[in-house]
Amino acid sequence: MKKRFFVLAALVGMSAGAMAQKKGFDYTFYGQVRTDVFYNSRSNSETVDGLFYMYPKDVNPDADGNDLNGKANNGFYVLYTRLGVDVKGPMLGKIKTSAKVEADFRGSGTSYSTVRIRHAYFNLAWNGSALLVGQTWHPLYGDVAPDILNLNMGAPYQPFSRAPQIRYKFNTKHFGLTAAAIGQSQYLSVGPSSDVPGTTSTVKSQSFLKNSLVPEFYLGLDYKATGLIAGVGAHLSSMTPRTQSVYNDKTYEVNERVTSVSAEAHVKYVHGLWLMAAKSVLGSNLTQTSTVGGYGITATDARTGEQEYTPLRVSHTWVNVVYGRKWRGGIFGGYLKNLGAKENVSGLIGTGTNIDQLTTATAELTYNLPNWKFGAEYSWIAAWYGNNDAKGKVIDTHQVDNHRIVLTALFQF
């Protein structure tokens, strides 16, 4: 009996200590249970076993001329079920403190149904300023994104990435300034998979940015009014594709770098039951944001095999219009164009470098109740594949289409 009393007293003491530590905190727990069923008329470039969809694969004929990528496929998953907590912390002097931790079961790579961090950051706010440290949406994703059922959220037209970052925001009544230094964690840049000069086989890795010793940088300016947000942004990245080269059976230390600058403009307007949004990006080597592109080899040192590079430029634009509340209909259109490089290249490193154009047209209808959403979405996606010319542009193209249907049921709490 005495032993039970002491155990109970210890538990009460521990609980009292925990309550004392939590003084001044406020927690809001939230989450969702989401199911997705989808159908594709052909094989596609995708992740999460087709849940995160990009674009149709090129024709791949067998010995009889049959397209091996022409087979239809489908899937049924609950991997984007998620849990999260928003935390309001005690004042730090005159600074408001808060934090967010959110996870889902998407996993990474080819490992699914495993817990993955989506957001994990703390935020300090004072006098119109806010400093965020941790992982959240990449600034190129920003505050303007399509309102659609597809889990790719408009990729590859919309930059899609969550990344560790240090982000500062300053807001006045109508204007907002954003500056950020950004790393990479789950969404990675593409680079050469070999240290042999001239290789064009690729791999996704943190090492390309980590070895450069320079994070990505973003600077943006927004104008805000009732129902309206419009702004522009600029992005800089500087990567190190290789730190060594194997050339003529000898290994050399090399100092390689590819630096690229991208720009974007966005607008979103909400009025009554209407939502209209659009974004246009002139991208340069933005493979870490779930889009196509990369860079090309412009020169190779005759003795060491050290290479020089130039980024590929890709233009991508999307428009989204949504109307309704209980019954909500929406359309989405996206267009992407490979603009090639400014210099002649001897090889290309990246994703989708043999795609000249991509276009998507989507229509959806959702039925919305408190805490519930049921929806259906149809998408037509076309890709134009071909051969690369001297500057990496794609010529002699042919068209490949995919038809995609998504059915979604969502319970939010």
TrEMBL record:
Sorted UniProt keywords: Signal
Signal peptide feature range: 1-20
Protein name, as recorded: Outer membrane protein
Organism name: Phocaeicola barnesiae
